UniProtKB/TrEMBL annotation:
The name this protein goes by in its record: LLM class flavin-dependent oxidoreductase
Keyword Oxidoreductase applies: yes
UniProtKB keywords: Oxidoreductase
Ranges of residues in domain Luciferase-like: 10-231
Coiled coil: none
InterPro entries reported for this sequence: F420-G6PD/mer, Luciferase-like_dom, Luciferase-like_sf
Organism listed in the record: Occultella gossypii
Length: 310
């Protein structure tokens, strides 16, 4: 697939363990100190060993100055969309426009039901997610005074007051791999956020991008309206290897630039709680990836420009 031309961003995926809350916050600060762009946290409200993700995001926003923040991804079945919309807009206002909304349809239904949430089939969860997105975007839209009415199968609002508007246009990123979710991303989302660990073959990314692109075009959008983000993991070492993201920083840079230029990814989020790896990503890998991609994009533009007089 072609490069979609988005600016490159890099971030972290930090475990929100409640056994060492100060360490979690410190890793978010390390993300900022490393020059990275984004800190994210998984959201599993039924997990007793984790801090509540929304509380953590709010606290980290107050402890940082520059980085953007997101869940990776919010568990929609346990966070009603109308309330979530106001919470997201409020955090964006309080943080000066530094919040993005990673959103998930839900999984682990036994655990969700044990917390008082619904139990949904895969198809039902996607329908509910689509309805939730409509409610969230509708509440953020203060350009109209029309009553907000969404009469969905799983979520309904009937005349809910709109607002507050967020400080910036919050992006909605969806984590997904299967075709129906990919089509929803193309129609309604601002970003696709899969995890590299769950991708069997890199060639599968081509088919997934095509599904998203075709759905975007059918909805009157462009493929470039959807940012491609990727949760990544790996190991830094001094020796090169033939494995993906297992080697020195320059190997990581080459491989990530290939993922950008060949598969369209432009945001890379490093899983794990290794402060040193975060620093290497921010100070060595990210600048090198940007330079490699910049050079290739410049070469493509030069090749596409006719010579004067021809």
């Amino acid at each position: 697939m072609p490069d979609y031309g988005h600016d490159l961003t890099f971030g972290t995926f930090i475990t929100p363990t409640n056994a060492a809350p100060a360490k979690v916050v410190e890793l978010a600060k390390t993300t900022e100190a490393a020059g990275l762009d984004l800190a994210t946290f998984q959201d599993h409200p039924y997990q007793a060993g984790f801090l509540d993700t929304w509380t953590l995001l709010s606290y980290v926003a107050a402890q940082t100055e520059r980085i953007s923040l997101s869940a990776n991804v919010i568990n929609l079945p346990l966070r009603p969309p109308a309330v979530l919309a106001r919470a997201a807009a409020s955090l964006d206002l309080l943080s000066g426009g530094r919040f993005e909304l990673g959103l998930g349809a839900g999984a682990f239904w036994d655990a969700i039901a044990a917390m008082g949430g619904p139990r949904r089939t895969a198809g039902e969860s996607i329908t509910a997610l689509s309805e939730g997105i409509d409610i969230i975007r509708g509440l953020w839209d203060t350009s109209t005074r029309e009553r907000l009415v969404v009469d969905g199968t799983f979520y309904q609002v009937d005349g809910a007051k709109r607002g507050p508007a967020p400080a910036h246009d919050i992006q909605i990123w969806l984590g997904a791999l299967k075709p129906r979710m990919l089509r929803l991303i193309g129609r309604k989302a601002d970003g696709w956020l899969p995890s590299l660990a769950y991708i069997k073959e890199l060639s599968d990314l081509t088919a997934s991008n095509t599904t998203i692109d075709e759905a975007a075009i059918a909805a009157g959008r462009t493929p470039g309206d959807v940012r491609r983000l990727l949760n990544i993991g790996g190991a830094f070492s001094t020796q090169r290897s033939d494995r993906l993201l297992a080697g020195p920083p320059e190997q990581w840079a080459e491989q990530l630039s290939d993922l950008t230029l060949e598969y369209g990814f432009s945001s890379y989020i490093l899983s794990g709680d290794d402060a040193q790896a975060m620093m290497i990503l921010g100070q060595e890998v990210a600048p090198a990836v940007r330079e490699l991609v910049r050079a290739e994009r410049g070469a493509d533009e030069t090749d596409a420009t006719p010579a004067v007089g021809l």
